[in-house]
Amino acid sequence: MYTEICERAGIRYPIFAFSHCRDVVAAVSLAGGLGVLGTTRYSPEQLDRELSWLDRKLEGRPYGVDLIFGGESAPEPEALDQSARLPEGHRRFVASLIDRLQIPRSGGHAIEQFGVGRNLVMTARHAQELCEVTLRHPVRLLASALGPAPGEIVEQAHARGMLIAGLVGRVEHVRRHLFGGSDLLVATGTEAGGHCGEIGVMALVPQVVAAAGPIPVLAAGGIATGSQIAASLALGAQGVWTGSIWLTTTESDLDPLIKQKLLAARSLDTIRSRAMTGKPSRQLLNAWIEAWHQPGAPDPLPAPWQGMLNEGALVGAYEQGMTSVMGTPVGQGVGMMNTEDSVRDVFYRLLEGYGVAAERCQAVYSASINQA
Ligand SMILES: Cc1cc2nc3c(=O)[nH]c(=O)nc-3n(C[C@H](O)[C@H](O)[C@H](O)COP(=O)(O)O)c2cc1C
After folding, report:
1. Domain ranges of the chain
2. 53 phi, psi to nearest 5 deg
3. What are phi and psi of 14, to 5 degrees?
4. Check whether domain 4-74+122-246+341-371 has CATH 3.30.70.330, yes or no
5. pLDDT 10s digits, 134-171
6. Residue whose CA is at the smallest distance from ligand 1 atom 13
7. Looking at the DSSP assignment, which residues form a beta bridge with residue 220?
8. 141 CB contacts (<8 Å, ≥6 apart)?
9. Which residues in 61-87 are b (16+ Cβ under 10 Å) and which e?
């Protein structure tokens, strides 16, 4: 499955793996794919430590970093101080939920320990600080979620030889990213864990490929098997961008209680919801999200206000290990994530599955040629 993007990214297999966990990122890059570190839970100092660790561990092998710039709407920190202005009705709803679900008050330590809370409220300034740290490291790929990266950052990244990847959820986003200097597009279907659009991968990828012209496209969303990689390549993608499947690996630092929930979950147990951050994001269904979808619940606020509303309660739930309220972004592929295996085993299973699927397609093709 060696495609042009392998050459450009300096990797052996076009399997990109998004994870907040440096061990997963390192293991994927060591296996021949490209690990991409998600940054939302880190302070700039923490991110610097994680990237320095990756630099040492990978000894020049490529890895990537994912930043959320948040588009024009991400407010500055001063705006966040206006939390007192969160609508009264929403505050009352959250207070009643905290009561009903018996969520204890947060001591605040889960923010440092797990980054819970920090990942709910992303500001332009925080993204900028994380970006400055990133640009000091030998990062091969800089991914920009929720809109293209600002022009001056793209320029600096390109000057350092980095590739820019843009995540797109509909074909209308393609132009903005190409205009913004993206070298690579990630067509993210509605099946995907985290922020996602409404279009399925099967319909989205060919449209993005056609609109992207010579710019390579990766398929993302619900990918958990090698046969889906073969399908993605058949749709015109040059590779795949994965996230969820790495959550249940042995290397993943996800809370073990949530890992167990994921291993038991079916594809139906995820929901695309604005309840967590204010932007539509696919999550594991839990009591907190469910409550926001009940009749009579207020409409979630736009980002970042919704995240601010949730922050205290969710941090409290994490600190107490309340599994009914704890959750994670995860895609519909969760129904295929049933055992906890090492990153290496998952990676090689993908390669093997791809080989079987490619041979199957080849056999069908050969049989039809012979028939003709
Ligand atoms: C736990 C989790 C957190 C995520 N956080 C981010 C993020 O901060 N930035 C981002 O660009 N994408 C994020 N994503 C989305 C991934 O980049 C990717 O698009 C998605 O995982 C692909 O779909 P899949 O999860 O079905 O493999 C996240 C995904 C998961 C599962």
Report:
1. 4-74+122-246+341-371
2. -65, -45
3. -80, 55
4. no
5. 999 999 999 988 788 889 999 999 999 999 999 999 99
6. 194
7. 188, 241
8. 9, 16, 34, 36, 62, 63, 64, 65, 162, 163, 164, 165, 184
9. bbbbbbbbbbeeebbeeeebeeeeeee
Ligand 1 and 300: CB distance under 6 A? no
For the chain, what percentages of helix, strand and coil (3-state, to nearest 5) are there? 50, 15, 35
Spell out the per-residue pLDDT of the chain, length 372, in tens: 999 999 999 999 999 999 999 999 999 999 999 999 999 889 999 999 999 999 999 999 999 999 987 654 555 545 555 555 789 999 999 999 999 999 887 765 655 555 555 555 567 788 889 999 999 999 999 998 878 888 999 999 999 999 999 999 999 999 999 999 999 999 999 999 999 999 999 999 999 999 999 999 999 999 999 999 999 999 999 999 999 999 999 999 999 999 999 999 999 999 999 999 899 999 999 999 999 999 999 999 988 889 888 888 888 888 888 989 989 999 999 999 999 999 999 999 999 999 999 999 999 999 988 887
| Predicted confidence (pLDDT) per residue in 200-258, tens digit | 999 999 999 999 999 999 999 999 999 999 999 999 999 999 999 999 999 999 999 99
Q: Which of 15, 16, 18 to mutate to test the pocket of ligand 1 (most atoms within 8 A of CB)?
A: 18
Coil vs helix vs strand at 142: strand
Give 273-333 as a DSSP string.
ESTTTSS-EEEE--HHHHHHTSTTPPPPPPTTHHHHHHHHHHHHHHHTT-TTT---B--GG
Determine the distance separating the centroid of ligand 1 and the alpha carbon of 7, expressed in angstroms.
24
Quote the tokens at residue 171.
């074909």
Counts for the chain of helices (H) and strands (E), in that order: 15, 11
Ligand 1 in reach of 18 Cβ (< 6 A): yes
* DSSP 8-state secondary structure symbol assigned to residue 243: -
Q: Locate 49 and state its tokens.
A: 């430590």
Locate 129 and state its tokens: 């600080």
Residue nearest to atom 21 of ligand 1 (CA): 243
Atom of ligand 1 nearest to the CA of 143: 11
Nearest atom, ligand 1, residue 241 CA: 22
pTM of the model: 0.94
